[in-house]
Amino acid sequence: MARNFTLHARAILALGLPLVGSHLAQMALNVTDTVLLGRYGVNELASVTIAGTCFFIIFIFGSGFAQAIMPLIAAAVGRGDETEVRRDARMGLWLSLGYGLLTYPLFWTSGRWLLALGQEPEVAGLAQQFLRIAGPGMVPALLVMALKSYLSALGRTQVVLWVTLAAVLLNLGIGWTLIFGQFGLPALGVRGAAIATLTVQWVTFVILALYAQFQPSLRRFHLFSRFWRADPAALGRVFRLGWPISVTGLAESGLFSAASVMMGWVGTVPLAAHGIAMQVAGLAFMIHLGLSNAATVLAGRAEGAGDARRLREIAQAAIILSVCFGMVVILGLLTLPAAIIGLFLDTSHPEAPQILATGTGLLALAALFQMGDAMQVMALGLLRAIRETRVPMWAAAVSYWVIGIPSSYALGFPMGLGGNGIWLGLCVGLAFASTSLMARFWIMAPQVPAAPV
């Protein structure tokens, strides 16, 4: 058993660490905007915090089709069915493209519904400026995610990592130039951040598409050949697996988005501190998400090959690795909160001491929900490997919307705990989700046949 654990752990880390790096780099695209605008102005930081949350929740709701590609392709690889690899990937791209085109009216009218959600007029106006420019980036963002799922399922995680890292550097360069008006250009503030984000998303898509089409070992899949031809069977397969993933993602992101909205009711300074703390918690989450993706691919291949023993051993190894990484993250959040927050904040701003004090408390609460967050995303990855998405959707919806959001509101306002109460509600929702989803996986995972007597 120990030998099998070592073998599976090495395979998970070999596939997962580049994915962890690519997820961290993807998150760094948003962190870059936070760092730059944190040195530009508090209202600008608050507006991009809420705008980024809005973009993310719409993105997550449409990303289920891109995410569905990964377990479907992994299972097809396990069966040795290369034709199905191409069919599922292509229809995942179709569904992602269609959804992305439908979202732009939401971004154009964003100021109106942000005001309706109780945001301050100046923050809502700046957020709308950002979203009107960055909104068309939904199409390449979803296509990039679909291509990343396709490449990851085929074991091409290194290219995903390097392209994402290059995108971070490009975003930093363009953002710094346009936000602050370098090289004689006007200072565009949030508009500069939006232009940088849009540019990077399209550049990233073009690079990954060219790689997927022309890399020698991938040419046999002919991903973009006759791309315009519909494939109803594959389209239905991706849609059926993908839409519950979208709703599950919406349930979770809805919990965190509701927390952002409620923090806006508390005040601009708490919202800015929340934005920083959420970025830090998100960076930690990306570690577990990368390991979960690796578990999806490897367990999906085992499922496709009909190897129940290997599937369960991979699941056990992935869970142990995620717990170990989670303990390291908890230690860092509890011992280095001021140093971490200082990376995102210009300490010369008069509001800086308040943001630092508020953010320190929020990071302690982020440490509290680390294990719940880690286990729920690992359980979701393993459930997707066995193509179980509908019951997890309902479990997530109840945990986050029926339990988590009401808990955040009750603890934050009627009970008077403010921002700390809102974050305690997050802990409650994640605890319910992790318990129910992990139990569902071990109930549904294929059983190992009994040894012959």
Can you describe what's shown?
This protein is an all-alpha fold and 453 residues long. It has one domain. Helices cover 83% and strands 0% of the residues. It is built from 18 helices and no strands. Helix 1 runs antiparallel to helix 12. The longest helix has 37 residues, at 2-38. The protein starts with a helix and ends in a 9-residue tail after the last helix. The mean pLDDT is 87.
Keywords:
453 residues; mainly alpha; globular
Radius of gyration over all CA atoms, rounded: 21 Å
| Number of H/I helices | 18
Number of strands: 0
In whole angstroms, the N-to-C terminal distance is 21 Å
Low-confidence stretches: none
In the residues, how many domains can be counted? 1
Overall mean pLDDT stands at 87
Sketch the topology as an H/E string, one letter per element.
Answer: HHHHHHHHHHHHHHHHHH
Strand content: under 5%
Which structural category do the helix and sheet elements fall into? mainly alpha
